[in-house]
């Protein structure tokens, strides 16, 4: 290797086989998007539901999620969840026994994630980012149940997309006020006071407690407009 071919200090040496593997990864990612777009395009209107994978069957959050999903399904909304256990299973289960389709967007993880049995449409993803696009792209609303880092990640993702205009304004509903109150207090007393968000950003979401409130809030949002994105919104969603 001549001096001009030697890597500079701190520069990694990457062999051709590694570069080839990285390049072919693009096709795997593309396949996930294509399958997702083709299989989910006809499920509208739909509601995405998030929450902890660790919630046991006998927990009140599980029962509440199942009731919300069943109420949404019977009201005509397909329900999209993560396809795994806990809150995700409760969401899929409620929808599965309702009138509208139950969709699971499963993610391959080293632990914790195993597909539940209540999915009319089942998709599997290797990559979180392509899966997250599917949650957003066809959703008429987001329902966020109590959960951990993954749930917070999805919540902050949709808030950021709506705040920045990268997706259309949809209802973002946090369920069970006792769980969320300290986070909302922190948003008010720290984020707003430090001026890193605007006070109006608090209007991007609402906190509700019952299945009936959730469904009514979604219908109220669309009272003066269609569930389908407008032509302008469709253009925005193309760049999601």
**How far from one another are the termini?**
44 Å
Write down the secondary-structure element order: HEHEHEEHEHEHEHH
Count of discrete domains? 1
Question: Which geometry do the CA atoms define?
Answer: globular
Please give the number of β-strands. Answer: 7
Characterize the structure shown:
With 240 residues, the chain is of the alpha/beta class. It has one domain: Rossmann fold. Helix 2 (60-74) packs parallel to helix 3 (87-96) and helix 2 crosses helix 7. The protein has eight helices and seven strands. It is globular. The chain is 46% helix and 14% strand.
Quick structural overview:
With 240 residues, the chain is of the alpha/beta class.
List the helices and strands and how they pair.
Elements: H1 16-40, E1 46-50, H2 60-74, E2 78-81, H3 87-96, E3 102-107, E4 121-125, H4 128-137, E5 139-144, H5 149-163, E6 172-175, H6 177-192, E7 206-208, H7 211-221, H8 231-238
Parallel strand pairs: 1-2, 1-5, 2-3, 3-4, 5-6, 6-7
Relevant terms:
single chain; 240 residues; alpha/beta; Rossmann fold; 7-stranded parallel sheet; 8 helices; 46% helix; globular
């Amino acid at each position: 290797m001549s001096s001009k071919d030697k890597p500079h200090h701190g520069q990694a040496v990457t062999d051709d086989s590694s570069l080839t593997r990285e390049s072919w990864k693009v096709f795997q990612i593309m396949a996930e998007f294509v399958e997702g777009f083709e299989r989910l395009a006809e499920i509208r209107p739909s509601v995405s539901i998030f929450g902890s994978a660790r919630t046991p069957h006998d927990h009140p959050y599980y029962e509440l999620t199942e009731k919300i999903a069943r109420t949404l399904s019977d009201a005509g909304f397909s329900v999209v969840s993560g396809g795994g256990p806990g809150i995700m299973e409760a969401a899929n289960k409620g929808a599965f026994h309702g009138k509208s389709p139950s969709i699971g967007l499963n993610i391959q993880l080293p632990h914790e994630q195993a597909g539940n049995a209540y999915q009319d449409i089942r998709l599997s993803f290797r990559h979180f980012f392509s899966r997250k696009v599917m949650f957003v792209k066809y959703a008429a609303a987001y329902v966020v149940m109590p959960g951990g880092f993954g749930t917070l990640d999805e919540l902050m993702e949709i808030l950021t997309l709506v705040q920045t205009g990268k997706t259309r304004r949809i209802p973002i509903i946090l369920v069970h006020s006792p769980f969320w109150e300290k986070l909302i207090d922190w948003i008010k007393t720290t984020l707003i006071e430090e001026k890193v968000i605007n006070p109006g950003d608090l209007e991007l979401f609402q906190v509700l407690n019952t299945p009936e409130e959730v469904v009514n809030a979604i219908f109220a949002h669309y009272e003066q407009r269609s569930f389908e994105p407008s032509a302008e919104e469709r253009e925005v969603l193309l760049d999601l």
